[in-house]
Amino acid sequence: MDGDTGAENRAFAKVMLDGGEQSGPARRGWVSVAIRVPETIDPVGIETLLRMADVATYNDWVYRQIRPFLGERVLEVGSGIGNMTPYYADRPLLVCVDLLAESLELARQKVGARENVAFVQGDICADATVETLGHYRFDTAVMLNVLEHIPDDARALACIHRLLAPGGRLLLLVPAERYLYGSLDRALGHHRRYERRPLRGLLVRSGYTVEKLHYMNVPGILGWFVNGRILRRELLPRPQLALFNALAPLFERVEAALPPPRGQSLVAICRKP
């Protein structure tokens, strides 16, 4: 799935946004998009999403973490430009929610016109958005690398809880290891990284039963620490991502055989009672 995304992104023209890649707090950089980037889209954020679209084997790995738990009526919270959206597009219902209309349009282009897929611009923490989505009665909500962007993560979890039918699941991926928080996180607008025990407590207080909670991607710790804490970069270099993408299947097999005690990310499978 999403196999041609990397080729599409590499075909995008280079648009210069006032400076080089390592331009500090101003978040200036090369953005690999063929369209003019609206002011509403942060250039570092969209460039990161475009680069992550190229790491297809890592995206496959993430998808396999949640695939056994996907239901038939899926809400994708924070779909962004649609890097993961095609994985769920075969479900009878998929509703993609994001703050930015421009991002949703890019996601729409990736999956094409489908009667089973809807796109809704809105803030998942807003009552108006919850009311708009309430009639769908989702059996699954997917939230991958989104919760850390939301100032009030407890409210976001509570709003998703309201949208799930009884027995529905929240499938969550968040950045782990608080000590890794650095320039990469700040550039991406991360409010936090998570630790296992506090995350479990947050989910339980939000009304969920935590069925699974585990770390993934141990090798990613090194790359994030070096780039974000030592070199203070705002973007992960493409050559590093290409190497990681080539090695991701090996990392996946190793971690499947030997579940890691730590990792760059935490995966949570939660159920609404």
Description:
There is one protein chain. This protein has 273 residues and is of the alpha/beta class. It has a single domain (5-271), classed as 3-Layer(aba) Sandwich (Rossmann fold), CATH 3.40.50.150. 40% of the residues lie in helices and 21% in strands. The protein contains 11 helices and 9 strands. The chain has helices at 5-11, 43-53, 56-66, 85-88, 101-111, 127-133, 153-163, 183-188, 196-205, 219-230, 238-257, and strands at residues 15-17, 29-31, 73-77, 93-98, 117-121, 138-144, 164-175, 209-216, 265-271. Strands 5-4-3-6-7-9-8 form a 7-stranded mixed beta sheet, with helices on both faces. Strand 6 (138-144), helix 7 (153-163) and strand 7 form a beta-alpha-beta unit. The relative contact order is 0.14.
Order of helices and strands: HEEHHEHEHEHEHEHHEHHE
Radius of gyration based on Cα positions: 18 Å
Low-confidence stretches: 1-36
Instruction: Give the CA-CA distance, first to last residue.
Output: 32 Å
Helicity range: 40-55%
Mean pLDDT, to the nearest integer, reads 87
**Shape label:** globular
CATH topology: Rossmann fold
